């Protein structure tokens, strides 16, 4: 019998595949503006869960687990410089989500 944790893990893996393979064009700043979280947030939450479980994990290890590659490599391939419009929208969203 499949338990809830297995279903949640499968859904999480699908979310990562969607964000990193199917929609790598969606920038983290746009995710932050619209949803209040991004791939880096997922990496932070992943690391926090690891630490709570007693596993040593640094920020870069967590990001690699989420991005499926070293973060610097991801940035070089997929991340564009934020536009002034994105930065303004991000600041407004940050104030709303505060």
Automatic annotation (TrEMBL):
Highest taxon above the source species? Bacteria
Location of the SMc04008-like domain: 26-91
Which protein is depicted?
SMc04008-like domain-containing protein
- Tell me which species this is from: Pseudoxanthomonas suwonensis (strain 11-1)
